[in-house]
Specification:
Elements: H1 3-23, H2 29-47, H3 78-82, H4 115-123, H5 136-149, H6 153-156, E1 157-158, E2 161-162, H7 166-176, H8 178-181, H9 194-200, H10 202-211, H11 226-236
The structure holds heme C (2 copies).
One heme C binds next to helix 3, helix 4 and helix 5.
């Protein structure tokens, strides 16, 4: 797709989402501002060094277990230790045959926590993130995501099945996603078919629909009710692999 078309689609999508949410009275302007900070935090949780301008660590994170399989900068991604489902060892990465298994706990316990405390934890020796890596704004948005932006994936995903309304999801998908991903989810060639991603990793799919894709112009649907994302994700699981 041409960049100009992508841009038009994005602004169209965001404008529609904004108008829908505002006229429905579901969000105030202050909430909209929070949503954009939280979505930015969600992108940072996914792969902060893909969208920041500071230092990128090369050594493996000191808290990354030596028995686990990854090395280098990837061991600094939040999701690598705490999971796409935010549940660490209690979630999908708890399976010892998973190549991302670390045995570390998730961040569910930090939902609702004072963001300042979360920032302090990120800058502590346990985590080792420094001001050379991220700005205050980036640390704050990450903490906002952890405190206010997590969802309880166990309520919306059963096994690997996303519990949404597929029919409603299909309609939403064709208006919001298909312009970029195609009706069959195969239009973007540098990723696997969306149907495959959604079936293999429903937690990552929900995380990305809510917060966007780092470094790409994919919209974050966070300002809309969670059901919208869940229904779209459920439809995505019906797409061809
Ligand atoms: C190398 C592994 C690793 C990475 C990467 C990592 N963490 Fe952690 N995290 C830990 C460990 C270890 C703890 C302490 C767990 C404990 O208390 O048992 C922790 C604890 C936490 C807690 C407190 C959880 C609680 O319930 O009190 C939060 C919040 C947190 N991490 C957020 C993040 C965020 C945000 C990122 C990305 C910027 C991140 N972590 C990246 C290993 C990691
Ligand atoms: C403006 C274009 C655009 C729109 C609209 C868009 N996406 Fe994306 N999406 C992308 C791009 C580009 C990528 C990154 C592909 C890559 O990994 O190279 C991506 C990545 C993804 C991924 C992660 C795939 C992976 O393996 O990393 C998922 C899941 C996804 N999109 C789902 C959706 C859904 C569902 C919608 C509708 C709510 C949507 N996208 C809307 C452009 C878009």
């Amino acid at each position: 797709m041409q960049i100009s078309n992508i841009k038009r689609l994005i602004f169209g999508t965001m404008a529609v989402a904004f108008v829908v949410a505002m006229t429905a009275g579901t969000i105030s302007p202050a909430q909209a501002e929070d949503d954009s900070k939280i979505a930015h935090g969600g992108l940072l949780y996914d792969k902060w060094y893909g969208i920041t301008e500071g230092d990128i660590p090369r050594k493996t994170n000191a808290s990354y277990p030596t028995t686990a399989k990854k090395k280098g900068k990837t061991t600094w991604r939040c999701k690598e230790c705490h999971g796409w489902d935010y549940r660490g060892v209690d979630g999908a990465y708890g399976d010892t045959s998973n190549s991302h298994h670390t045995g570390l706990k998730g961040i569910r316990g930090a939902a609702g926590m004072d963001p300042a405390k979360i920032v302090a934890s990120l800058k502590s020796a346990t985590h080792g993130y420094t001001s050379d890596m991220m700005t205050d704004m980036e640390f704050n948005n990450l903490a906002m995501f952890v405190s206010k932006g997590q969802v309880d994936m166990s309520k919306i995903i059963d096994g690997k099945m996303i519990k949404g309304d597929k029919v409603r999801g299909k309609n939403l998908y064709s208006t919001i996603c298909a312009g970029c991903h195609g009706d069959d989810g195969k239009k973007i060639k540098d990723m696997p078919p969306l149907g495959e991603v959604a079936k293999a990793n429903p937690w990552e799919t929900i995380h990305k629909i809510r917060n966007g894709q780092p470094g790409e112009k994919m919209p974050a649907l966070r300002a809309l009710p969670l059901d919208v994302s869940v229904d779209i994700a459920a439809h995505s699981q019906t797409l061809p692999e």
